[in-house]
Amino acid sequence: MSAGEISVVICVYTEDRWEDILAAVASVLRQSRPALETLLVVDHNRALLERLGRFYTDTGAGRPGGAGEVRVLPNAGPRGLSAGRNTGIAASRGGVIAFLDDDAAAEPDWLRHLASGYDDPRVMAVGGRTVPVWASGHRPSWFPDEFDWVVGCTYRGLPPGRVPVRNVLGGNASFRRAAFEAAGGFATGIGRDGGRRPLGCEETELCIRLTRTLPHAVLLIDDRAVIRHRVPAARERRAYFRTRCYAEGLSKALVARSAGTGRGLESERRYTTRVLPLGVARGIRDAALGRPGGAGRAAAIVSGTAAAVGGYLVGSLRARRTGARFTATAIGPSGDGPPRGNPAAESRHPRGAAA
Questions:
Q1: pTM of the entire structure?
Q2: Which CATH superfamily is domain 6-236 in?
């Protein structure tokens, strides 16, 4: 296990994203800094597990000088993104583990820029910039840049360049293995679990727990490490916008319960008191100047904030009433973690070639 080698984990769950999954893997295989391996972790979907296994068996012939391999394996924990990521961490061999969304494609220098952040031994995590690719071909005129986190992308308000942050964003992030050894893996019981509500914040909770465990740890975002994230038509609608904002509030309530409101809401206070008022002002100005969508963006910021606050209040009441808890999986120094399931269910292939 080399600290300089990077394993890439992509968690997948539905055959509806088949072409996206192949594109995500292909983007990893085209990196200017090759990955040690790409792990596709399938979330309790046997048909998809078997289909991906066959695909990379049939098309994954090794290439001379090829980098890494594609491995297809089942999520060994409970349904959900956190357990899938933990399965990938446990099965991986790299000293750094990077995570890529299954409906995103990385730019060719993505891993090179992530890796460069680890030249400083204090750095425990490096994230990148996620750019939306709208299904309609353009951003909806009413959709504010400040809320691009709703569709899993980098939003207005994050600082540019390579800068320290409280937490990285999980769809475009990397961590030293030592970070998981010290703080454990992603917590189950928070975030996406296959249900209908689009929850989140798994990486926020992990990053807060990591810096609590290692107070001198540095977490970075480098906006040169770019991925392009597909936004389906359903997520361009106002109904999804409101639902996702409400779900974010629910998730933030769990994080605040775990980390305390001081640390758990530190970044959110700056965002709501500085970034969002400026966004409303820009929208009103654009409306006054007759520019398209200005009033809609200002209204969306107000309604999105109200939905998130409402979700936070409901989530806080539920957490106090039920004593909600979530658990972080221990990750050992050699990648030990949750059981890997039936070894026969794992497909291991030389470097795969995705269409």
A1: 0.88
A2: Spore Coat Polysaccharide Biosynthesis Protein SpsA; Chain A (3.90.550.10)
